[in-house]
Design brief:
single chain; 383 residues; alpha/beta; Rossmann fold; 2 domains; six-stranded mixed sheet; five-stranded parallel sheet; globular
């Protein structure tokens, strides 16, 4: 059992401030386990909307939920969007005796009614798989190789972890994705997801992908947005403010969980990753996700010019711009692109995140930092 105290604190704080909290993240990332731990501090009821008995109990939701006290947990809320108007009424009651914890594996824009019915009434808390903070810095390689899904990270045998990830991909393609109402065949979605894995860390070219799949670029974009909304991929948007500059304006594609990325491209073990052409982009995606977990809610972009200058990640915090480069090398050095990014974007500082052990400065405004020391940035980057 790996404790996740910071997420628990965020949930409890949200329940203190608002009548409801929505805990959102991919399926099988540990939402239900966390909800049960939080529920121990309240009296109440957990409804699993995959359970026919619980669904039947909510046939008249106003009657069933209106008398509840304490904490009411609604697991897999995306399956019953018709509950949102009822929840709005219940949350608006003066002195409501109940708090609501909603668990979902689809982002608000995929679940019609969340932002419309519950805007201003719930606090959103995002949950991914295990982070490096949670598993401990000594397990960095294991987390990178297997990813953060509990059932992938925790098995003793590497083969069991890999088998779970392959089964997860198949189940998601054949069952879970169709439940979001996208009307696509499992085979076409599987090919798209496989292609995304091979484009991992590159700029999106929907037209090229569409030609390879025999689909229009608009269909590819729509499917990618649905994968993004289900927390399977990340479309990192480009930053541009000077319309006169020739900048790259397509988002970059990432498979959010490194373990799923490795399963999609057939990498079963860490030693196989070390000799694979996707080693660098795998590290980039893994380290990028750890930075974004460390700074939840931060506005994030990448930046690139047609001339080849590029910045992997830019965060905006405290009115300042902070840059990140991700290098899978033993001793990163400065580059012309880094200096161009600092000057063009007005970065306060640029951090080069690598898998090594030692922090050291490259220039006054560029520092090499081991990923395992990411927590040291909390006081260096303005909130």
């Amino acid at each position: 059992m790996i404790e996740r105290p910071e997420i628990q604190k965020s949930i409890l704080k949200g329940l203190e401030q608002s009548p409801g909290v929505a805990l959102l993240g991919p399926r099988q990332c540990g939402k239900t386990t966390l909800a049960r731990e939080v529920a121990q501090q309240y009296s109440g009821r957990i409804f699993d909307l995959d359970n026919p008995e619980d669904v039947a109990a909510l046939e008249n939701p106003m009657l069933a939920l209106g008398s509840m006290r304490g904490l009411v947990v609604l697991d897999k809320i995306q399956r019953k969007p018709e509950l949102f108007p009822v929840l709005r009424v219940l949350m608006d009651r003066p002195g409501s005796p109940a708090k609501f914890l909603l668990l979902g594996s689809a982002s608000p824009f995929l679940v019609k009614g969340v932002t419309e019915s519950l805007a201003g009434r719930i606090v959103f808390v995002d949950l991914q798989g295990f982070s490096l903070d949670e598993v401990g810095e000594s397990h960095q390689i294991k987390l990178w190789g297997r990813g953060g899904f509990p059932r992938s990270y925790l098995p003793e045998e590497e083969s069991e972890s890999y088998r779970w990830r392959r089964d997860f991909i198949r189940t998601f393609v054949e069952k879970d994705f169709s439940s979001l109402g996208l009307g696509t065949t499992p085979s076409s979605l599987g090919r798209l997801w496989q292609m995304v894995a091979h484009y991992h860390g590159q700029s999106l070219n929907a037209s090229e992908m569409g030609r390879s799949l025999g689909e229009s670029y608009k269909t590819v974009q729509r499917h990618l947005e649905m994968l993004e909304g289900a927390f399977m991929i990340r479309l990192l948007r480009p930053w541009f403010e000077n319309l006169g500059k020739r900048l790259v304006r397509s988002p970059k594609l990432y498979v959010r969980d490194s373990g799923l990325l490795h399963a999609l491209i057939g990498i079963e073990r860490y030693d196989a990753l070390l000799g694979h052409p996707k080693l660098g982009s795998s590290w980039e995606g893994f380290a990028l996700e750890q930075v974004l977990i460390r700074f939840p809610g931060a506005n994030a972009w990448y930046w690139a010019t047609q001339g080849g200058a590029e910045l992997d990640l830019m965060l905006m915090r405290g009115g300042k711009r902070w840059g990140f480069e991700f290098k899978c090398t033993d001793a990163p050095t400065t580059s012309k692109s880094m200096h161009i990014a600092i000057e063009s974007l007005g970065l306060e500082h640029l951090w080069v995140i690598y898998p090594g052990e030692r922090e050291y400065p490259l220039t006054e405004h560029i520092t090499v930092l081991p990923l395992r020391q990411l927590n040291f940035l909390d006081q260096r980057i303005a909130p």
